[in-house]
User: Fold these one by one.
Assistant:
Number 1:
Amino acid sequence: MNFHCAHCPRAYGSKDVLRGHLVAVHFESAKLPCTHCNKTYKNIKSLRSHLRKIRCGRIHGCDSCGKKFHHRYDLMRHIGQLHDR
Ligand SMILES: [Zn+2]
Ligand SMILES: [Zn+2]
Ligand SMILES: [Zn+2]
């Protein structure tokens, strides 16, 4: 019983069971991060479709803040939104 729910007093023996409880009882979607960029996905299906879109696997890093993007246009949009002077 090492994994305590943040929303109620329940505790579970494994992280997976607790995650199942969170989704079922508190409707909290589990966050699945992409290992290549900082994006997180609510379910494995969305993450897989995201990963499928990455053809070359090239990462475009922002020179100003180090944020990573799969596509050049994502990086350009990010620079335009946050670092445009
Ligand atoms: Zn709970
Ligand atoms: Zn990604
Ligand atoms: Zn940046």
Number 2:
Amino acid sequence: MTRVIVVGGGNAALCAAIGARERGAEVLLLERAPFEQRGGNSRFTAGGMRFAYEGNEEIRALVPELTPEETARTDFGSYPREAFYDDMGRTTAYRTDPELAGKLIDESFDTLRWMAGHGVRFLPMYGRQSFDTDGRARFWGGLTIEAWGGGQGLVDSLYTIAGRLGVDIRYGARARALAVKKGKVRGVRLANQEIAADSVVLACGGFESNAAWRAQYLGPGWELAKVRGTRFNTGDGIRMALEAGAASRGNWSGCHAVAWDMHAPDFGELDVGDSFQKHSYPLGVMLNAEGRRFVDEGADFRNYTYAKYGGEILRQPGQFAWQVFDAKVAPLLRDEYRIRRVTKVSADSLEELTRKLDGVDAHQALHTLQEFNRAVDRAAPFDPAAKDGRATRDIDPPKSNWANPLDTPPFEAYGVTCGITFTFGGLHVDSNARIISEDGLPIAGLYAAGELVGGVFYFNYPGGTGLTSGAVFGRTAGYSATSLTKKSQNR
Ligand SMILES: Cc1cc2nc3c(=O)[nH]c(=O)nc-3n(C[C@H](O)[C@H](O)[C@H](O)COP(=O)(O)OP(=O)(O)OC[C@H]3O[C@@H](n4cnc5c(N)ncnc54)[C@H](O)[C@@H]3O)c2cc1C
């Protein structure tokens, strides 16, 4: 029987372990975190997963509990493969590896159906990804379903499935190096032990939790970012593979980073999950310490800007910003604005509000907001579920959609800084999830999935693609680590 070691304990590792067991391997999963903190970044997510679909049929295949009444009052729209390709191309400035992106997109629905077949439950993401218009919930951003119970629910159910299938799981087990014999990977070294295997799948995250690597690769200042998720993703898998001769690949100076509460702790907290994020800025404006706007808050739907705007906030003086809204849009703010641990001020006038913004030039801030209000062209009606073209005129930066004057008290402002999610650079992997060496050949017995795969995301990211990528490449890595290794043994 083929022995496979999977390094990691998040979505990608669990899908790899389940895939390998399905193909008949004996599987050992090494999770660095203790049991209580298992599950990596995957556990901190909302469980939102992007996939290509033509219409209601695919949604129903993943959410069999959906009632006819729910279907009737929901416009799920469609998200064809071409749209997914366009989004991957546009957000990555067309640098995404076509083979890897193609696989991710083409296998997205099938992989989610595979997960559902094993017992993962999904539901429509009504709260965060649809707006009610004309009595119907309209989905607007290609991200339509989430795992039941969010990231926590997803991870728990994958661990249950893996356990049921007979995957051997060890917690507090940090892999430190690969055992390589005669050019083949033959196991993994822990602090005091070497464990032999026929193949190894690395699915142990990027290097977002390593402050020194962040400063080294992402650039000066990135050591100051808060980490949104697990503290355990310090780049071990990438380092181990590079030491074994793997080629590095992708956007090593790029990462996914978002607007995150300025007083959030240095690493994620499981009881808050992703709720320190503040993603309703398309409905308002953002001001920096100088009291100036610095991005087009309405350049696109949140799903296509949020992952790069964290970096924009990091580049502002003092690495912070305030998001400002008025009472007209307050009911539309996402659930994360209503948590207890939020940095918020409110006031009945813009003068009073700008004086309350800690660290901000209040005089300039007031001027910026008044100038913004004058610049809003009210010709196009406001529609949060569409790119409504309701824009500003003659100000820089512009606001291209959802521009409403801030004129209805009470006004609210939320203090944010940069929260890093995961890094984009990683290892060269082919579409069979084999890790490629610097000489351009697969390294025998070595596979990868998840955040540490390089070449998929550059500069930006379509929301909800990380979990799908981990699942697609995880399942493939599990299959390849079993079947391809078996074939090479039989040769
Ligand atoms: C707050 C937050 C919200 C997010 N929301 C979403 C969302 O809704 N949808 C979406 O698609 N994506 C989301 N993401 C991104 C998503 O989390 C990642 O893309 C995805 O979970 C990565 O999966 P992974 O298995 O590669 O990594 P992880 O889930 O991070 O797993 C890595 C695992 O490796 C383990 N590990 C690390 N080093 C070692 C070692 N040396 N030995 C053994 N184990 C090791 C870690 O303990 C961890 O269990 C979010 C991320 C965060 C932080």
